Amino acid sequence: MWFDQFETPIGSLTVAADADGLRYVLFPFHRHATPPRDDWILDARRLAPARTQLLECFAGERRHFEITLAARGSPFQRRVWLALADIPCGTTRSYVDLARCHGAPGAVRAVRAANGRNPLPIVVACHRVIGSDDSLTGLGGGLPTKTLLLSLERAASLDPRGAVAGLRQPDFFSG
Fold first, then answer.
1. What pLDDT digit, counting tens, does each position of 42-87 carry?
2. What would the pLDDT profile of 16-32 be if each residue is shown by its tens digit?
3. For the segment 110-166, what is each residue's pLDDT rounded down to a tens digit?
4. 92: closest CA among 60, 59, 131?
5. Catalytic residue among 57, 89, 101, 126
6. Model-level pTM greater than 0.85?
7. Phi, psi of 68 (to 5 degrees)
8. How do beta strands 71-72 and 41-42 pair?
9. Which among 85, 78, 47 has a CA at the least distance from the CA of 64?
10. How much is the mean pLDDT over the chain?
């Protein structure tokens, strides 16, 4: 696994990938346990596209990512993460909305858990999920991070310059 670490407006981010694609975006203080890093190799060149696109996102110049993604999770988690990828930049959805889109309105807690285990925050925009009462709810990087990310996206969505369009990769999550 290759990784890079760089400074952003929300602190130092770590990105990691293998030959299949980007596996992790890790906040400076991650809520859940992070993967062991004993065999990770620092390689900024291999992670340059992820770094560049994340920094463009923070600068309000990018709304979608064009990175090969290779997050691993259960089939349910992957379905939730694909639903997250479909939430347009600058908008939000509730956990209830996501559960309904899975045809399982009673699965709100499971959707919340899958959202919280998203290994690619920001790129797969779990920060766009809010409470059904429009309240901001948890994010692995903390509520101030979520607030900043949503503010950046709303500002970018009002920007007449537009942004770089992303490529949809329907099978970018593996089991």
1. 999 999 999 999 999 888 888 789 999 999 999 989 988 988 888 8
2. 999 999 999 998 876 66
3. 888 888 889 999 999 888 887 777 767 666 666 777 778 788 777 766 544 444 333
4. 131
5. 126
6. no
7. -70, 125
8. unpaired
9. 85
10. 81
- What was the pLDDT predicted at 75? 92
pLDDT recorded at residue 19: 95
Judge whether 79 and 115 are in contact, CB under 8 Å.
no
Q: Could you confirm whether 126 is annotated as catalytic?
A: yes
Contact 15, 3 (CB under 8 A): yes
Here the tokens at position 114 are 């899958």
- List Cβ<8 Å contacts ≥24 apart for 62-66: 62/156, 62/163, 62/164, 63/89, 63/90, 63/153, 63/156, 63/157, 63/163, 63/164, 63/165, 63/166, 64/89, 64/163, 64/164, 64/165, 64/166, 64/167, 65/123, 65/166, 66/164, 66/166, 66/167
